[in-house]
Design a protein that fits this description.
single chain, 218 residues, mainly alpha, two-stranded antiparallel sheet, Large ribosomal subunit protein mL50, ribonucleoprotein, mitochondrion, Ribosomal_m50, ribosomal protein
Length: 218
């Protein structure tokens, strides 16, 4: 059968004998010059701006921002800065000039002690946008920490400063733990200075010394 197939390929009569080969051996060899059609693939969906923004928003609620609480005279102080820089205090005044933006934002940072982050620079295009930014408080309290200011039900208790075991500070069991040789790691940079780590010494591996004859050396 293999010789017959080879003879058909060399003789150029594969097209005539292909139905017979297909029905007998289920071996389909494409003719010379023909192309094998691949199954159509589904087009990949490109990420949209809305999906990217939703992904960034879902990454976390706490950023490395400093807390900021605006005063009641923020608007008057901002108008005073604009007058010093010869800028109109109208909220529709555009501040597109780069040198003007740098001088104005620097003065506002010195006055309010609140710097504009890079993610907000593109949103501030007018004096009104700048006014809204400095009138908006920045709250860095996590939802867990905010629970202590709420009126909780009597069957719910939130422990703000939890206790971590450390043999030097434990007074209840004189430094003895129920989980011997278990370390307590502090992975967060914020809490490394608040909660000390405890890494116990491991008694293994025990390195023993032997001589060339296999005798233990004390």
């Amino acid at each position: 059968m293999a010789a017959f197939t080879r003879h058909a390929c060399l003789g150029g009569v594969l097209t005539r004998w292909q139905p017979m080969l297909s029905s007998t051996t289920m071996l389909i060899i494409p003719s010379r010059g023909s192309k094998i059609k691949k199954p159509p693939q589904k087009p990949k969906k490109k990420p949209t701006i809305e999906s990217v923004m939703a992904s960034i928003e879902a990454k976390g609620f706490l950023r490395s921002y400093k807390p900021y609480q605006p005063n009641q005279n923020v608007s008057e102080r901002l108008d005073r800065i604009c007058e010093m820089e010869n800028i109109s205090t109208n909220d529709m005044t555009s501040i597109e000039d780069m040198d003007l933006r740098f001088k104005l934002f620097t003065k506002c940072n010195e006055e309010f002690k609140h710097c504009i982050p890079n993610s907000k620079l593109v949103e501030i295009r007018t004096i009104g946008d700048l006014r809204v930014f400095y009138q908006t408080p920045v709250i860095t309290t996590t939802p867990y920490d905010a629970l202590k200011n709420l009126d909780l039900p009597p069957n719910l208790h939130v422990q703000q400063d939890y206790v971590r075991f450390h043999p030097e500070t434990d007074k209840l069991f004189n430094g003895k733990t129920a989980f011997p040789r278990s370390a307590t790691f502090v992975t967060g940079l914020k809490y490394k200075t608040k909660y000390p780590e405890y890494i116990p010494e491991k008694p293994w591996p025990i390195h023993l010394k032997y001589d060339l004859h296999g005798n233990k050396i004390d």
